[in-house]
Amino acid sequence: MSRFKFSVGPWNVHEGSDSYGPATRKEISMEEKIQKFAEMGFSAIQFHDDDAVPEINRYSETEIRQKARERKQLLDKYGLAAEFVAPRLWMDPHTVDGGFMSTNPDDREYAMWRAFRSIDIAREMGTDLVVLWLAREGTLCAESKSPVWATKMLIESINRMLEYDPGIRICIEPKPNEPIDRSICGTMGHVMAISAATIDPSRVGGNLESAHAILAGLDPAHEIGFAMAMGKLMTVHLNDQNGIKFDQDKSFGVENLRMAFNQVKVLKENGYGDHGEYVGLDVKAMRTTRDEDSYQHLKNSLEIFQALEEKVDRFDYEFQKKCVETRNFEALELYVMKLLMGIV
Ligand code: XLS
Ligand code: MG
To answer: What is the pTM of this model?
Structure first.
């Protein structure tokens, strides 16, 4: 039995379309997904603002709150919590050049409207956590906006959210690229610097996604450790990635097993979850996956995570200590590989 609580977003179960081809699976309703997530043992659901309130632009602030309460009733029906709400600032025409750092002032205000509504929705759904994945925040043409100005706009936007709700927590999910070309906040280091520059650093932290760290050429476990050292790891998006290419959101551990082992190890060793944090998944099924296997990638990710928990529990810290004292890291590395291969 895992010591962790797990969360997932409805976009993790999708129809399989990609930039080069149409859907390969039938659409599944939100209620059916949420019921299945509860059956699979998830404890919480991640939401975009328009997952909670579809066609959000059509509604007044009051209507948005009402619809968020209705979505919360669906969670209550299956005994699930809402982990976070994230403004989806990458689909609407107003976000064509980003949101908080768009070169169009009206579009910047639209992004703030969505951010404030995400806070309202979060409150109605019983969570104080808003996640900002900064999809289009950066440049497609490097000379289109100053990186100094853009960074300051991000800080100013977060400050406005912190002022809008004095109890809300803002969690930035860094990614070095895709769909943006040059990201303004690409790694956990950038997130920690942004946090420190806001009016309330204690309420601004990070969400580390495994694939995003790999896309930045970094080690996910070290990115997790960096945020935990600052006391600012608010959640994680565990998945995997085969090298530096398009974001693959692969099942956790399927490409980089030792990296996955060290992500579980750093979370377990440092009390992740002790303050209610969830292990979030952000994984997508292969386009070739059939309808009847629409949730298999989530089951695989949970099974691999829990198998790695057992490996961490069996890790021989005495042997590690001896290897460190004698600086025999070759022996330590072989031990880890044997542990992962089931030889020891
Ligand atoms: C995309 C992001 C996205 C956010 C949620 O790369 O990981 O899935 O986590 O919108
Ligand atoms: Mg993610």
So the answer is: 0.97
